[in-house]
Amino acid sequence: MSEHQEQPSDASAVAAAERLSAAFAARDVVAALACFVTDDDIGYVGSENAENAAGRAAVEALFKSLFARDEAYSWQVTKAVVREYGDCAYLFGQADGLVHTDAGDTVPFEYRMSGVLENLGGLWKWRHCHGCEPAGEG
Predict the structure, then answer these.
(1) Which terminus of the chain has a lower count of CB atoms within 10 Å, N or C?
(2) Domain extents for the chain?
């Protein structure tokens, strides 16, 4: 078991979150799907009710919908807890998120992610990923 707070290496489970962030920032559906294991048993859940997809085709459709918005998203993991169990791991992370509008503005937001990953050839890939903005305190 490990807790990561430093900049991750490409082989760490935390780096899987960073690779997915880069794909979201680039609005690159192919790159986002490449962050997941290759079979059909994958899932992604976001903050909004409609951001819930299971299966490769549904996750791809969700990413296409998200990436068609007039803004892109990225995040930098600031703290993460990773529990590795052989070739599988669970990640819970806190991150600093940014909305990048097409108008050129950036808006910060708090972000959390969690999920199940599998180590495939030394690279952690998502089986299921849940990213959300924490609810306000009042």
Answers:
(1) C
(2) 2-132
Per CATH, domain 2-132 is 3.10.450.50: yes
The model's pTM is 0.90
What gap in Å lies between CA 97 and CA 39, rounded to an integer?
A: 29
Alpha-carbon gap, residue 76 to 68, rounded angstroms: 22
Q: How far apart are CA 102 and CA 2, in angstroms?
A: 38
Which H helix or E strand runs over 13? helix 13-26
pLDDT for residue 64 is more than 60: yes
Q: Determine how β-strand 2-4 pairs with β-strand 106-120.
A: unpaired
List Cα–Cα distances, 59 to 46, 78, 129, in angstroms. 11, 26, 11
Q: Distance between CA atoms of 17 and 54, rounded to whole angstroms?
A: 19
In this predicted structure, what is the pLDDT of residue 92? 95
Q: Is the pLDDT of residue 47 over 60?
A: yes
